[in-house]
Specification:
The chain is of the alpha+beta class and 241 residues long. The chain is built from seven helices and twelve strands. The strands form two sheets. Strands 3, 4, 5, 6, 9, 10 and 11 form a seven-stranded mixed β-sheet that branches. A five-stranded antiparallel β-sheet has the order 2-1-7-8-12. The chain is globular. The two termini are 24 Å apart.
């Protein structure tokens, strides 16, 4: 599955320009002022990350809370289970069945992290695009209103698909092994975000990404320890084993 990503401010500025968004727009400027450098960020921290929906960028929190969630306690409980949404069951699962139809978005990331088991040892890997500045993760989003406080929470989930050969080799252990995030080709971003896209076309886009456009290297085992401060530039340095 995909629980840890890298989304850096410099990369987001490039992404916004490449997406032909209005960089001078005050909303975008204000958004970028809020952005922190996330060299290494875990979904279990429910971070605020920048997404693109239709032609608008916004900051949503990772860990989707369905609109029909009743209480704040229920919202807190469900979000740890909705960091990822499996493509195979996404139209049937109550948490996702409404959002996948019309509320799709893109999470631009510099790369993401996965662990390979070798002789009962977890070796962390950084996976990144070969020929692009970003991976464009296919996601879905929802808005939940706390009926007591009237606070609105904007949240998203990363969709996962069966892994390609490269990621099958790397992501080789655990209950959710041989999975990878849904990566949308740059040419398909507009189509993916189109709320009028039909189900059969959505399903066609939910395929494993071509491994020839991806690369990976091993990084420090510091990435294995949640008590460490892993959100530092050094975490992205290559380490040979």
């Amino acid at each position: 599955m995909c629980f840890t990503v890298s989304q850096q401010k410099k990369g987001l500025e490039i992404f916004i320009k490449d997406a032909n968004l209005l960089y001078e727009d005050n909303q975008i400027k204000n958004l970028l002022d809020q952005v922190q450098n996330n060299f290494f960020v875990s979904g279990f921290q429910y971070p605020g990350l920048v997404i693109l929906k239709e032609n608008e960028v916004d900051m949503f929190n990772w860990g989707l809370i369905p609109f029909w969630t009743k209480t704040a306690e229920d919202a807190n409980n469900i979000r740890s289970m909705t960091l990822n949404a499996r493509s195979e069951t996404i139209f049937e699962k109550p948490s996702y069945s409404s959002a996948i139809k019309t509320q799709r978005c893109i999470l631009p990331v510099d790369g993401y992290f996965e662990w390979k088991e070798v002789n009962n040892e977890k070796i962390p890997h950084y996976i990144f695009p070969k020929e692009s500045s970003h991976f464009y993760f296919g996601c879905l989003y929802d808005r939940w209103i706390n009926h007591e406080t009237r606070e609105t929470k904007n949240t998203f989930s990363i969709i996962t698909v069966p892994s390609n050969p490269m990621m099958t080799e790397i992501h080789n252990s655990g209950q959710n092994k041989h999975r990878m995030p849904l990566i949308i080709s740059e040419k398909d971003i507009e189509q993916w975000n189109d709320p009028s896209l039909k189900k059969e076309n959505i399903e066609k886009l939910m395929e494993p990404f071509n491994e020839h456009f991806m690369d990976a290297y091993t990084i420090s085992k510091k990435a294995n320890y949640s008590r460490e401060n892993r959100n530092v530039p050094e975490i992205l340095q290559k380490v040979q084993y």
